């Protein structure tokens, strides 16, 4: 794991947006297309604001979420709603977006179609993750009903996930897909998450799902 400590959050958001943009640019110089996989939640909004304005061939970039809350885009809990407002705007409006939600269907029913759309864009070129103070990434929550399946080496692309701490049902990329990304970044703020991350290495992946990606990740932290 590589840890970058920034003097403040603003410097972190700018440094991280630059880094994601240049890694996408590198990928696009070598390949026909690039995939960018991002978290929802409350932390990454300012990174999205900056990244959406960057000069890239966005029409060759495919964007999808790490995980989605099973609510329509109009809900303020929807991660897709966040992306529509803050990432898929300005220059980045030209990117292709692949949803992890389907209205009127249960997660289990929709997953085969959603996963089939993601599969051609793997491995992920550039992965950004958030992390909770309970050490979850995506919707790989400690104690969740299908965590063992989602952590397995032969896990499917997408796994439905339910746990009380998450609120609504979730759909999440599996640990195999996340850990297979070409470049992995984790964005965290505050002392509580920093302490949770520091202690993760002594725990099992079931207790600390972030461990599934830690070996090859760059962690970006500011107080
Ligand atoms: O849908 C989600 O909730 C996320 O993708 C999730 O994995 C998130 O990244 C962490 O919960 C951190 O969230 P915060 O940034 O809000 O602390």
From TrEMBL:
Coiled-coil ranges (or none): none
Matching PANTHER family: 6-PHOSPHOGLUCONOLACTONASE
Biological role: Hydrolysis of 6-phosphogluconolactone to 6-phosphogluconate.
Similarity section: Belongs to the glucosamine/galactosamine-6-phosphate isomerase family. 6-phosphogluconolactonase subfamily.
Lineage: Bacteria, Pseudomonadati, Pseudomonadota, Alphaproteobacteria, Rhodobacterales
Gene: pgl
GO BP, sorted A to Z: carbohydrate metabolic process; pentose-phosphate shunt
Keyword terms, alphabetized: Hydrolase
Matching Pfam families: Glucosamine_iso
Catalytic activity, reaction form: 6-phospho-D-glucono-1,5-lactone + H2O = 6-phospho-D-gluconate + H(+)
Listed name of the protein: 6-phosphogluconolactonase
Statement: the UniProt record of this protein carries the keyword Hydrolase: yes
Pathway noted in the entry: Carbohydrate degradation; pentose phosphate pathway; D-ribulose 5-phosphate from D-glucose 6-phosphate (oxidative stage): step 2/3
Species of provenance: Frigidibacter mobilis
EC numbers: 3.1.1.31
